Fold:
Amino acid sequence: MRKVFHVELTSEDGCTELTLPATPYALLDAVERLGLAEGEAPGWEILQSDAFPGISMYLDRRGTLPDLNALAQRLAALDEQGLAIVNGLALMEPGPQGEPLPLPRLIDLAYSTDCCHLVEGVVTDAQLGRFCAENGFVPEAGDLPDAAFALLDFERIGKQFRKAEGGVFTRAGYVQRREELKQVYNTLDLTLKKPDYAILAELPDGSRVELPTPMGETVPDEPARCVDCAAPVLNGLTAMRSTLDQLAFRLAELEVDGELAKYKAVLAATGCDDVAQVLTLADKLDHYSFDPELREPDEVASGYLRGLLPKKELAALLPNVNLHCYGQKIMEQSGGKLTGYGYVRPSTDLTQNMEPQANEMEMM
Structure:
């Protein structure tokens, strides 16, 4: 499926980027990385739109992320003619041309492409008039000799048809509505919710299966590709179906144990993309320390010093320390990394490897 929007999502605690349409787990993961409270919605801004570059002139920024993803899913399924029709339908909307349209309305327009007709390559009244005359829509022109036909005022004819039909010109051609538009938005379930599967896998024939497989069922030994995963960084991973099924069981267990966020952080920190290593890491999470509250080098440094010093000494020291540089030093020596889920590092005692010397703290 083609990618439609590349967006920036924001919250009070930070920002992240996401490509739409996104899978259910990718949406949930983005919200998790933003640290949003339950019921809180992220802000969003479109950074790039390859499939529908003119969308920004129509799009009302007050819509929700699930609404924007639903629009992206529909636009991704359309061909170039369909996208041109959506553009035309947006231009037909009442009100000043170019005025932003609510996302629910745009979704309805995107599902109404079969309610319209596109005359490709016809982009002016004169071209429309000639098309109508040549295709029998102007009865009076049917018996005219070629010389007389060429003298017709095609621009006037085209303008009359366009006004009567309420059609519009787009860069791809002339768009005309043939019937009432569909009302689809209110039938869609756009609630952000966890899927029933841990992995959605695509098989060689294009079909998809949900993993893990129910207990007792045989797992065919065939290639499969992960298209949606509880750990979205693994989307695109290919392996035998039985191996992905094993991984799906492990992911489900990690979620029950409250360890899934830590696992995603370790995957992000290690950059692991080999299925054997991915499975091994799931069994070695106790080799890592994870703190979801630490998102910046300053916070890493503050947290480290807080574990070493009494409150009074800490309060006197902090205003005089370049926490950003010191946090980077701590991460360098400990092998720790900041991820979108928090701070993760190998489980070794930092105090054995470094002491907070004043010259290392880069006094300000």
